[in-house]
Design brief:
Layout (H helix, E strand, L loop, with lengths): L1 H10 L10 H19 L4 H11 L8 H4 L6 H18 L2 H13 L3 H16 L4 H19 L4 H13 L9 H12 L11 H18 L19 H7 L6 E6 L10 H4 L1 H4 L2 E10 L2 E5 L12 E6 L6 H8 L1 E4 L5 H4 L5 E6 L16 H5 L2 E7 L2 E2 L14 E6 L1 H5 L9 E4 L14 H17 L4 H14 L5 H7 L2 H20 L1 H13 L4 H16 L4 H18 L4 H12 L10 H10 L3 H26 L3
Helix pairs in contact: 1-23, 2-3, 2-22, 3-22, 5-20, 5-21, 6-7, 6-8, 7-8, 7-9, 7-11, 8-9, 8-27, 9-11, 9-27, 10-25, 10-26, 11-28, 19-20, 22-25, 23-25, 24-25, 24-26, 24-28, 25-26, 26-28
Length: 628
């Protein structure tokens, strides 16, 4: 960076009468210091931005009011609102639903799997934070890898590439787009439309899919444990370990069944038929809902009972015939598919437990905890037979099933057991289940308002946030927590540099320097140089901060060349999303390093050539779609 500043000072022709004044030197000194601290990541980037916000007024180029002006910028409010909308999509399961649909449609064909995965990530990332999308799709991809027998390394980098490309799909997809758009508006030009950037993103996504399918042979093919850590237990592990798929049955209550209109306390199926009802599926307006059985639960026609056999070898056919039930298929992945409603936990019976020497029935364990024991392990052997009548011993391990809310409060009540572990699935439980239609409506409304221009973009986003709160998709505390305040402070803290550099002549000097370096070689060479500079700086500092600095330079170059500012501004926006080259270029890349078992060289080897391809496509397309 210091070398770049020296070139800047030496190579700028003084035809405009531009002088390197003291104010400019002080601003450039602070800029170099900021870039160095960004590259060292010490202190944090948002702290660096705060420091610059405080120090810039001392240069005399701006006053303190101008340094703080970013907090009142409508684009800053828009970025914060988009974080909230994205969180609403996560909490209601919209994002996860996209992933589950992807797994269903893609099947086990690797080409379809990668293509569908990248399209889904990019499509969702066009309307919410790319970092959040990546975090959502990592467990989905891990599940896909496990199901299809592939290495996670084959799927993680395609996710990060697609997430970065999502920033090239819509105006609101990433902060640099909004920063560039804001600079255009600030200088008196019309801003970009909601989908102005989309014609560039679609061909780059198609190119990325083809590229990934070609280079996947160089991605890690073996799955290794991350950092030597043991893999977390899942519901699927316990289903296999306790052989639940062999003991569970799904039975529908037929129209003439004798169970209709009776409560569970009246039936006493546990004692009379050796069967324990774990859950009840009941038809609702928007699909089936899982009901937690209680003694007072009244059974209805069409209810589906999930039954666990307590005693060894009960006559399930006799049970079906006696009560007028209909057997339904129960796949081994049933508990996985119902993991939003049904949870599991493994507990141990400690020495001081009141359970020791007593049966579960004698202790009224289910009544007191709301959880059902469906597995008992003594030592390493699972116990078969009537679990409710089995006397508990010190050190027995119990597998409990029931609602996640009951599992979470288990340590807070006198249950007589100590929690050993909960499955990793608990972290995927939706905080706002059943609200997905409301979240989708809010998203479509916001997009519609932005596209039609009925109200300003920031107003449309705020309307979406308020509606999500009204519909219960998330609460106020959730909304505040969802906002990435580090990103907000980073942008606000770096925006004053744009004003200071313009006021001291630094922007004009940078524009003249780039034009001097290209030697009047033509528009395509200037665009290529501007793209390369933006992408290069984004490797060492935030791409948002890079956009803040180079957007005014791009517009100044356009004025010098007496050309439209839109192609030059668009090049900066596109280049800011081309962070494929290193694992630290973007949080998106950092997230996939561990689960994909990647090394630094993997990103350079795969991301470097694709960054060059992206630059070629952008430099070719931009002058065509946005005429000079």
């Amino acid at each position: 960076m210091e070398a770049a500043v020296c070139i800047l000072l030496r190579s700028v022709p003084l035809t405009r009468g531009t002088l390197v004044n003291t104010q400019l030197l002080l601003v450039l000194f602070l800029l170099v210091g900021a870039v160095v601290m960004f590259a060292m990541n010490r202190p944090r980037m948002d702290v660096v931005a705060l420091v610059m916000m405080v120090l810039l007024p001392f240069t005399g180029a701006i006053n303190m009011g101008e340094a703080l002006a970013g907090f009142s910028d409508s684009n800053i409010v828009l970025i914060a609102a988009l974080f909230v909308i994205g969180e609403g999509l996560v909490r209601t399961g919209v994002a996860r639903g996209v992933g589950d649909l992807l797994i269903k449609k893609a099947g086990k064909t690797e080409t379809r799997l990668i293509a569908f995965l990248m399209v889904a990530v990019c499509g969702l990332g066009a309307f919410m934070s790319s970092t959040a999308v990546t975090a959502i799709f990592i467990p989905i991809a891990l599940r896909m890898a496990s199901t299809t027998g592939r290495s996670p390394g084959q799927l993680m980098m395609p996710i990060s590439i697609a997430a970065l490309i999502s920033g090239m799909m819509t105006l609101v997809a990433t902060a640099p787009n909004l920063v560039v758009n804001s600079e255009l508006v600030r200088q008196g030009y019309d801003g970009f439309g909601f989908f102005t950037i989309t014609p560039f993103g679609i061909p780059i996504l198609i190119l990325a899919i083809i590229y990934v399918l070609f280079v996947r042979r160089w991605l890690p093919k073996q799955q290794e444990e991350v950092g030597g850590m043991k893999r977390r237990t899942t519901l699927a592990d316990w289903v296999k370990e306790y052989k639940l798929a062999e003991r569970e049955y799904r039975l529908r209550i037929a129209g003439g069944s004798s169970l209709i209109g009776k409560t569970l306390s009246e039936l006493k199926l546990r004692s009379t038929a050796g069967a324990n009802i774990i859950a009840i599926e009941r038809e609702q307006r928007f699909g089936r809902r899982l009901i937690q059985p209680t003694p007072g639960t009244l059974l209805e026609s069409g209810d589906i009972l999930l039954i666990d056999l307590l005693a060894r070898g009960p006559d399930i056919d006799g049970l079906i015939e006696q009560y007028g039930l209909e057997a339904l298929p129960l796949a081994g992945v049933y508990f996985n598919d119902r993991s939003q409603e049904i949870g599991m936990t493994e507990v141990i019976v400690p020495a001081e437990s009141p359970l020791v020497g007593k049966t579960l029935a004698e202790n009224n364990f289910r009544t007191r905890t709301g959880l059902t024991v469906i597995g008992v392990r003594r030592g390493t052997e699972a116990i078969a037979g009537d679990l409710a009548g089995e006397q508990m011993r010190i050190g027995d391990t119990l597998l409990l099933v029931g609602p996640w809310t009951k599992i979470e409060r288990l340590p807070m009540i006198d249950s007589g057991v100590a929690v050993l572990q909960v499955p990793v699935d608990i972290y995927e439980v939706l905080p706002a289940p059943g609200k997905a239609p409301h979240a989708i409506f809010c998203l479509l409304l916001v997009i519609g308002l932005m596209v039609t221009g009925v109200v300003p973009n920031v107003q449309a986003a705020l309307i979406g946030c308020l509606l999500m709160g009204l519909f219960g998709c998330l609460g106020m505390n959730d909304a505040y927590r969802s906002i990435n305040w580090k990103t907000i402070v980073l942008i606000v803290g770096m925006l004053p540099f744009s004003i200071a550099l313009q006021r001291t002549g630094g922007v004009d000097m940078a524009a003249d320097a780039l034009l001097a370096l290209t030697g009047g070689a033509g528009t395509h060479v200037v665009l290529t140089t501007l793209f390369a500079l933006t992408a290069l700086l984004s490797m060492f500092m935030s791409n948002t901060a890079t956009a803040v600095l180079l957007a005014p330079v791009a517009i100044a170059i356009a004025k010098d060349m007496e050309a439209s500012p839109y192609p030059f501004a668009m090049i900066v926006a596109l280049a800011a999303s081309t962070a494929f080259v290193t694992p630290v270029s973007s949080p998106v890349n950092t997230l996939v390093v561990a689960p994909g078992n990647y090394k630094f060289g993997d990103f350079v080897r795969i991301g470097g050539p694709f960054a060059v391809l992206t630059m070629i496509v952008c430099v070719f397309l931009v002058p065509i779609l946005l005429p000079l």
